[in-house]
């Protein structure tokens, strides 16, 4: 289940939240079936189709869509990206906003728990971060960021479940070959220059706002971060307890 589901009651979507089967699966994709998610991973029962959760993912929630982004809002039936793995033709809907997590989690089950305290982001698969754990300060730690609906390498994630490489946004991720290798608003994937609005790879933070992207910080505030920010500072903002606080965080 995507963490955004838990927020539904707080954004006038309680009726949708009440339909969710919390004991069932929200998506049927298992990375271990494709050689990833190293470690033990099992699908909850009932599965996403039987639980009814897969069908709910077709609900378009306008709050989760950036009004400045004209990109595709839905996910075509797919054995990798759909909650039902394409078996019943469900067309899930996307989100323009996702949690800031380490992209390396795509290859390991419960990667967050295996990471050292100093390198952890506030969020990650089955993370247990409390506000008191964010010792760098909630105003110095990223919680969520923007992602464009159009994506070259992958498919922008749904608000409801995790599909293939749906691990969130990593502003300093370097899993694939992009130009530049890290940062915000990256449109070039392995030499393929995409138009502005089609981000390069599945973990890139990007928006159609000129010069940068908006982020939610752990204190709940929203700030625009310029794409010219240096990578060390962006890294410190991603990590919640590395002891490295940048002197002038975005205001």
Describe this structure in words.
The chain has 251 residues and is of the alpha+beta class. The chain has one domain. The chain has six helices and eleven strands. Strands 3-4-10-11 form a four-stranded antiparallel β-sheet, with no helix packed on it. It has a three-stranded antiparallel β-sheet with strand order 6-7-8, with no helix packed on it. A hairpin with a 4-residue loop joins strand 10 and strand 11. It is globular and about 50 Å long. The protein starts with a helix and ends in a 13-residue tail after the last helix.
Please provide the count of β strands. Answer: 11
Distance between the first and last residues' Cα: 32 Å
Q: How are strands sequenced across the largest beta sheet?
A: 3-4-10-11
User: Share of helix among residues?
Assistant: 10-25%
Structural class: alpha+beta
Quick gist of this model?
This protein is α+β, with helices and mostly antiparallel strands and 251 residues long.
Task: Write a concise keyword list for the protein shown above.
single chain; alpha+beta; 3-stranded antiparallel beta sheet; 11 strands; globular; 4-stranded antiparallel beta sheet; 15% strand
Spell out the blueprint of helices and strands.
Layout: H1 4-7, H2 14-19, H3 48-51, H4 53-56, E1 74-75, E2 92-93, E3 97-99, H5 111-114, E4 142-146, E5 150-153, E6 178-179, E7 188-189, E8 192-193, E9 198-201, E10 212-217, E11 222-226, H6 231-238
Parallel strand pairs: 5-9
Antiparallel strand pairs: 1-2, 3-4, 4-10, 6-7, 7-8, 10-11
